[in-house]
Amino acid sequence: MGTLIAMSVSTSARAVERVKVPDVAFDDLVREWRDASAGEGFRRALMEDGMVTVRDIPGFARLRRRVMTGVSACGARATSARVTDFPDGTSRRTVAAVTEGFRPSDDVDLEYAYGDARAAEACSEDLLADVKTFRELVSSVSRAFVERLGESFPSRDGSPMLRSADPESDSFEDVGSLVGAGEHLEHFHAYSRGDRSPEIDDGASSGDTIDLHVDQGMFIMFTPGVVVDLSQTPPAMVKGESPGSFFIERRDGTIVECDFGFNDDVLVVMLGDGVDAIVNPKMPEGVVLRSAPHAMKMPDLSSGWVRSWYGRMFLAPSSAVHDERTGISYGEMRDIAIDSVRAGGGEGTAGVGCSRRSLHATDTGTTCTDSNKMYCWMRCMPKVDCSSAPAGHTLKCASQRDEIWRPADSHGDYNPTCTNSTANVTDDPLMPSQYKNAPSGGCSTNFADYLAQRGPSGEAWTNQRELIQNKLYLQWRRCTTTPGAIEMRMVHDGSFGYLAIGLENVGGGHNGMNGARIVMGIYDPDANAHGGPSWLNYVGTGVRELKIHDTLSAFRHWKNSGPSSSGLLNSTIEVNPGCGSSMYFKTKKIHGTALNMTGCTNFIWATHATTLLKSYHGRASRGFVKINFALDSGVFEYDSLGNTDFGCAASDAASRARGFLLALLATAACLAW
After folding, report:
1. Which residues pair with residue 45 across a beta bridge?
2. Rounded to an integer, what distance in angstroms lies between the CA atom of residue 200 and that of residue 429?
């Protein structure tokens, strides 16, 4: 492994040293260190600047050139690309994807307009194949890096890195298990100057395109930027043209510019703020890995030229506990960050792409800078006027059950309220036993037979997906007697409070839930359960078409959102306490939106089976399904890898994670360079 080599360099923003980033050979990562000094150099680099390059990756150099050039050209015409503008006049186009663990879970979102011949040429099948190979190669390097990281930095006492928010799931013992279970964000960026003028500089700016920041993830793996000339046919890399400057801040506060070496045909690994939060507290005394603040400055590029960059940010698993005091998971914190942005918090507020420091209430206490707001459920919310409230009622952050939120409390529906309550938050009440438990004589029909029952049409279900292992199943078929209609059935082993499935609102909050049009089977056998109709949000047992509120997730905000006339042609709900239960419907549309009978449709689903409240379903009880009603995809058992694509060609469909990606992109101003 190389050592830092420094020389003086001057930029328009600052005079800094230029340093050669330490490197490690790919063979050393996948096998054993060639000698003790290589392993020690790896440890030293990650503790000093938190950064190494991986060189000599078989087949990487030529593949990188094809992919970075090709994706820049394709992304320039992709309708799915997101555009971000920066104060220095730079514009950035981004296409994205998600990798789960070490396995890409969907294709890079390169959707383009139908009939765009130039886009079809740029986004060729050869390019898509190259991108697939490229991402798999990045996965192999990341797997090897994580193994070496775990070997080089074992915890001081062998304790798990993080525990799971699900008490029935195993803890995350090491960095490998964290990365293997995480959902990681991939981005292809193309930066350009275009015709935008820089915003007026007040003198406080560094002049960088992206200022110093630390990423929230465990680490990020990226390719150094390259310059691509899109005005050529075909587009080509511009040799010898600077892709700009990449700076880091060292432990002593000095700023240096990075030289990645090897003609930039390397993958760079940079540790993120997740290392400070998760790994460093587990290290022996004196062992501290570095998550270095970093910045990027764009070069002045000719018209038609772009700076092309790729990165993959490795995030902690959504189910891992983020804060032991509150029990809040990393996934819940990301939801909160996204909610903050959608509520007007601004791009980057709550730090989805940046440091965890902005995710902790302890940074600002539990106060808000705006005197008209109060701190309530880890965010600032508008106060309500309690001047006319009854005696003894004061402004508090309370749930709908009039329980008072504390920083130790987790998920719920909390709002500023005038109340005299002093009750602490309690868990949701469990479903009463008479509605949950099977009869003493057992179920009249075993679940396998119940699942095999045909629908009202008398025809067999041609498609079936196991949504929750051994618990929840989705069945569907095209209607032969009613052209353009489908029949759908959700089947649950045991009682449920609700079952729901509907059309994903792509780009909507909470992974496409907010604004979604759904069919919801509600079990409301007792208006007086759980404290009565108000707290229960009682609506009665039945199947309903509803539209989830665009920004407010709690059921009380959209329980009466049904269409003026139902589009359901037939529907039934059947709850057999403790036994097979189901929701069935037949329709051509959901809440006024016609179903796509010739292509792919993104669906979301959810269930709650522990209470009669229409409350938070938990992460294990929701998901995505992509269905092509023009085809029969057959019967699928539970897929632990998360396959959600049924009869949809990879080249045809919007990513099932697009809502997730767009929401995160909206908050990730500092995600990449």
Report:
1. none
2. 56
